[in-house]
Amino acid sequence: MLTIESQLKNPQSFKGVYFALAILLCWFTSLFLLLTWRFEWTNPLVYLMIFVQMHLYTGLFITAHDSMHGTISSNRKLNNFFGYVSVFLYAGFFYNKLYDKHHNHHSHVHTEKDPDYAPHGFWRWYLSFMLNYVTVIQLIIMAVAFNVLKIWIDEKNLLIFWVLPSLLSTFQLFYFGTYVPHKGEHDNEYHASTLNKNHFIAFITCYFFGYHLEHHQKPATPWWQLYKTKA
């Protein structure tokens, strides 16, 4: 295992950390500015920024996902640090719980032991997906955080730029990263399909995780290199 010092001497090995930091900084900067923005509902930029913030929330979860596969850093403590921080900021999740569930998905894909799979239509599958991951303690954490933050921040801003984008990103993650790739029958051992090659669409929909068969084939490939696996 490389130490942090040895990684600093080799910037190439630190790329995963750079990408993780970039997403965290973009998310925090955008959120800070939006929460302090005295906006008007007639401003179309409001609605654009909701989707920008949604995409950045999805980026937080994707960063944690990379951490679960050990691709942020070869230093385990540093790698896991980004995982813990990202999922907690995303919605009060606990990294170790998500870690176990995600690796169950890879080990038992498309079976009863797969927490990401349900043999139902979109809404029933989405509900099953959410119930598998959301916990009471997480809801309490988010409720406490909301009520503390609204002491200083306008509740309207909190709802529109903090709560709503986080909720919307669960649809983005589920639809493009789970439902579409795994629905139906497939002729491969990973029970997964993949998007047609279009890197722009693949990025804006779910950070290249529409290339889902390739992710299952090469889970040690970080999101920002996943496009390279697409023949």
**Which structural category fits the helices and strands?**
mainly alpha
The fraction of residues in strands falls at under 5%
Based on DSSP secondary structure assignment, what is the total number of beta strands? 0
Low-confidence stretches: 1-12
Transmembrane segments: 16-39, 45-66, 78-95, 125-146, 158-177
Domain Fatty acid desaturase: 44-137
Organism: Pedobacter jejuensis
Protein name: Fatty acid desaturase
How do the strands and helices of this protein lay out in sequence?
Blueprint: H1 4-9, H2 15-35, H3 45-68, H4 76-91, H5 95-107, H6 122-133, H7 136-149, H8 155-182, H9 199-206, H10 212-217
Could you name the key traits of this structure?
membrane; FA_desaturase_dom; transmembrane; Fatty acid desaturase; 10 helices; disordered N terminus; 64% helix; 231 residues; mainly alpha; globular; transmembrane helix
